[in-house]
Description:
By secondary structure, the chain is mainly alpha-helical. It contains eleven helices and four strands; from the N terminus they run E-E-H-H-H-E-H-H-H-H-E-H-H-H-H. It has two domains: 2-148, no CATH class; 152-229, no CATH class. The longest helix is centred in the N-terminal third of the chain and has 26 residues, at 23-48.
Amino acid sequence: MIDTLTRVETPEGVELEFSPAGPVPRALAWLLDAVIRYTADGILASLLAQLGRTGVGIVLIILFLMEWGYPVIFEVFNGGQTPGKMALGLRVIREDGAPVGWSRSVVRSLLTTADFLPFAYGTGLTAMFLGRRFQRLGDLAAGTLVVHVPPRFQPLWAAGGPPEAPFPLPFPLTQLEQRAVMSFAERVPLLTRERVEELGDLLEPLSGARGPEGVRRLLAIARDLRGQA
């Protein structure tokens, strides 16, 4: 499967495609978030230590909030991405593709302890390797996925030169073929280069080419159908 895609069909009949993140990028994202948390904890602890016992109490509250609230706050208010996940191009979503929300984010955060058992996230890693979506226990209980944020497809002309001019075909397209080309062009910015070229190859009978050249021609045909200059 291209990009290890998993497909989800919404109640409206729309098929969404996601690429679940494996243990390595998720571990790196967790490590980066841990460095950020522990650095902030250390700085705040050193500042509040001057307040004596009151400072110690405040530090304990902050440590609790940072440990359990840090991922929840970022996932809910930052589109499912903590700073570590943003750096690694990951995002937490619901299994149906919707934003994660408060309740699900809290559940997956609280179950981090269970995933850690017996040590070094042994249970969580085992659960991830047993499923094709790489879901740890927290994800399974909350009904969430950690997926790669698809990079926007860089236009094939971006490396040099302007976009191709409209490419009128020597034969008319049926209404179904026109919809296929227009749908392809609309999805290009949302997919990876590999996925775009794979879909473009399916339309080779219309473009007469495969790979990057086929994508170029299909985008040019779409421009012609839109009447763009």
